[in-house]
Amino acid sequence: MWKMNRICFLTFVTLLTTVALAELPGDDAYTYMGVATCAASQCHGSAVPRNGSNVLQNEYVTWTQDDPHSRAYQTLGSNRSKRIAARLGLKSATTAKMCLDCHADNVPAERRGERFHLSDGVGCESCHGGAENWLVTHYDVPNIAHAASVSAGMYRTENIEKRAALCLSCHLGTRDKFATHRMMAAGHPRLAFELDTFTELWRTAGRQAHYRVDADYRERKGAVSHSYTWAAGLLAEGRQRLQLINGPRFAANSLFPELSFYDCHACHRSMKTLQWRSLPRHGGAGPGAPFIHDGTLVMAMALARVISPTDGDAIEAGLTALHRASGKNVASIRMAAQELDTTLTSLQSRLSPKLLRGRELQLLREILATGAEGNYLDYISAEQAFMAVQMLVIELDDPFLEDQLDPIADTLNNDERYRPAQFAAILATVAEPEEKPANIDDERND
Ligand code: HEC
Ligand code: HEC
Ligand code: HEC
Ligand code: HEC
Asked: What are the CA-CA distances from residue 363 to residues 82, 126, 219, 253 (Å)?
């Protein structure tokens, strides 16, 4: 089963209308009715899962008791948030737009219904969309099809691409809301995300799962594999990151670009580990250069090497260009980011659940082999590699491999003490139990 291996942070529906539904919840024009409107016991507030219903109907209870999102607003009142706010010169985190935008359903006042409370944090409608026009109809199944609710404003969380955009809007950020390096230096945690791992961590965080993917669900909504969710999520994350680099978030009017787009550990790690080593994707940039955060892009490269090797080469060339550009100026970085985005777009347009079917072992081998060669020198790539390996091992359902997950996770326990040689060695033993581990050393400066 899914393990809470938290490293250090731990469709098929035809649209009835032609309305453009590209927006995220909150960007739409609907009134947000409030979590209380979903919580009646005959609706989603049942204490236990209901029999004879398509959906569990205890989602409200699961959400209040165990979903981290129900605590997102309370978090803004915590001592940690108070310190963050004080350091940023904010009056209070609980009233600051820059915090509420991700920690609550911060729709404008005129779109808050009578039972709406900001203190509900990230509530049902933050993900499922403003319920104004579907609240009183959506449960009348099968008379009201899911598609009809969708055209009345329900967000298509079951669609993997839509779900990726939704989760990433808070777990990576957008042009409009973003966790800056300034916030992190004031105490905000570093954000890390992988769509499949986070979906499963979140879905199974409670005593009851948020939803159940069973035969009935498959019939109503379809379901895709974990590996497809992972792959689609990677490409969505990578593209959003590259597009943000091309937007105003990356370079304001200051000496340095926004540092949260860089590999945190390029700057934040012990000066006693001399671990720098030239990797092909670094394009010859020498030691001492801060790198653009490329963990998801490195995984996208591994994905491409398996499903479309020419794209794998193109991603590597794109990453090389991006890292080379990092030493030049913002305009060059942006140009390289745009180019790489074009490659990811083309891969994304061809990605399908079918293309990935039966490729889990190949993907696992690719990631383990490139890891064994020492390509996950930086913590952020290693963390992404671990999440991918965990997902694939669970998909493959192989007890030998499952036993290897804890030791791999152990090497990632403390990001500032991460030893790339140790990580590479352990991936090498998993990949080829007989072979000698990778030839990289952790020279110590002491
Ligand atoms: C409106 C913003 C928002 C959206 C949308 C959102 N999240 Fe979150 N998520 C948060 C915040 C804020 C937290 C931290 C809550 C806290 O502890 O205060 C969080 C926490 C989490 C955690 C727990 C992380 C940890 O380290 O414990 C998981 C897992 C998670 N979210 C998964 C998801 C998934 C999967 C999606 C998409 C289906 C998603 N989130 C959509 C804002 C959001
Ligand atoms: C771009 C969206 C975003 C913005 C803006 C944002 N946060 Fe967060 N915050 C998150 C997410 C997502 C998490 C969960 C991270 C994880 O564990 O993976 C989080 C986690 C936290 C945590 C840690 C919670 C815990 O349980 O450990 C605190 C504290 C916090 N945020 C406070 C703030 C404050 C204060 C602000 C405003 C200065 C703010 N956040 C702005 C998205 C955001
Ligand atoms: C962090 C985002 C998020 C939050 C918050 C959230 N959901 Fe969900 N919900 C999802 C996702 C993702 C799915 C699975 C995909 C799907 O079937 O739409 C889902 C599935 C469901 C389902 C099952 C749908 C089915 O067809 O089987 C129900 C019912 C549901 N949510 C109700 C709620 C209610 C009620 C709340 C508030 C108490 C809530 N959700 C809060 C994201 C969220
Ligand atoms: C290019 C170098 C660089 C990168 C990349 C970078 N930082 Fe920083 N960071 C700094 C500097 C410089 C400071 C300020 C140190 C000080 O105030 O003494 C800082 C401060 C911090 C602090 C506060 C530390 C303290 O002792 O007060 C945290 C936390 C932090 N950064 C987190 C991050 C995270 C998370 C990332 C990646 C998303 C990141 N940094 C990326 C250079 C960097």
From this structure: 44, 34, 28, 42
